[in-house]
Amino acid sequence: MQTVWLSSAEWFAVLRIGLGLWWLESWRHKDKKQWFTGGGITWAGGIAEKHRWPFVRLGFDRVVRPRPRLMAYVVAYAELALGLGLIAGFLTPIALVGGLILNLIYLVLMIHDWAEQGQNLMMALISAVAFFGMSWQAWSLDDALGLFL
Predict the structure, then answer these.
(1) What's the CA gap between 49 and 148, in Å, rounded?
(2) What gap in Å lies between CA 87 and CA 105, rounded to an integer?
(3) Residue ranges per domain, the chain?
(4) Residue 2, phi then psi, degrees to nearest 5
């Protein structure tokens, strides 16, 4: 299908690249010194402690709290990898699914904060649209390398 300015594949690529820039901004705006010394995980722990769903508290206590430094690095560098992968269009379907999962984790953790939910819901929706629109078909390393045809 041809649109006025770009093809549909190119519009999906614009959406993918925009989402990648959003992930890159999520990584960039973190205070790395504070984040990697436990600030981010401490903040999330405070939210998990007061969470209305017991499984969130239990999951956080079993998975994240025992390894705060590792989880801080996992979260920060997952955001960086998602941003770079989506911008470059490398392993795009994997990045889109990974980003969708990360947004759903954020969504569940922050379920009581509607201001934060708008961002997570929007990013999750863009991930789904970019995935089903096969946004790796234009302007991507995946397309150049013949991956995910």
Answers:
(1) 41
(2) 22
(3) 8-145
(4) -100, 135
Tell me the C-alpha to C-alpha distance, in Å, between residue 67 and each of 74, 127, 139, 144: 11, 28, 38, 39
Residue type, 15: L
Query: CA–CA separation, 147 vs 105, rounded Å?
Result: 28
**86, two tokens:** 């989506």
Cβ–Cβ < 8 Å for 143, 136: yes
Question: One digit per residue, pLDDT tens: the chain, 149 residues?
Answer: 666 899 999 999 999 999 999 999 999 999 999 999 988 889 889 889 989 899 999 999 999 999 999 999 999 999 999 999 999 999 999 999 999 999 999 999 988 776 667 899 999 999 999 999 999 999 999 999 999 98
Query: CA-CA distance, 119 to 41, in Å (whole number)?
Result: 20
Rounded Cα–Cα distance for residues 108 and 106 (Å): 6
Q: What is the DSSP letter of 134?
A: T
Q: Residue 130 and residue 124: Cα distance in Å, rounded?
A: 10
